Amino acid sequence: LHSKITFGGMPFSGKPSSNSRKNFKGCMESINYNGNNITDLAKRKKLEPSNVGNLSFSCVEPHTVPVFFNATSYLEVPGRPSQDLFSVSFLFRTWNPNGLLVFSNFADGLGNVEIDINEGKVSVHINVTQVKKNRIDISS
């Protein structure tokens, strides 16, 4: 270690840059290193950051709207035709030990994916119709 530590990306002068990745763009909070709150020290100008670019000490929260479901309600969102990628992210809170969180059929009748809570644990079930072992289960 060259007595410097970098948070949020590599400095432009950093040597290990063979694939020219961009630096971090986003928000970090409460950066702690060896028991020191780096965020607080930088905010109080107790550190001398170098080449920090656009640095602010507040994270803008994305505007989210909580949605409440009862036992019979659900949200259906159309998929993307001709896409072979499935990506979903969400935060949830529930008092129910069992329930379905996400369900999606794959294109062309190839199967489906199901994410649920079973006895308080999140489970992922992938059902594929055209292979011998046609179900994959992952549980927390």
TrEMBL record:
Q: Which residues form the Laminin G domain?
A: 1-59
Which SUPFAM superfamilies does its entry note? Concanavalin A-like lectins/glucanases (SSF49899)
**Residues covered by region (Disordered):** 1-21
Specify the superkingdom.
Eukaryota
Protein's recorded name: CNTP2 protein
Organism encoding this protein: Anseranas semipalmata
> Which gene name does the record give?
Cntnap2_1
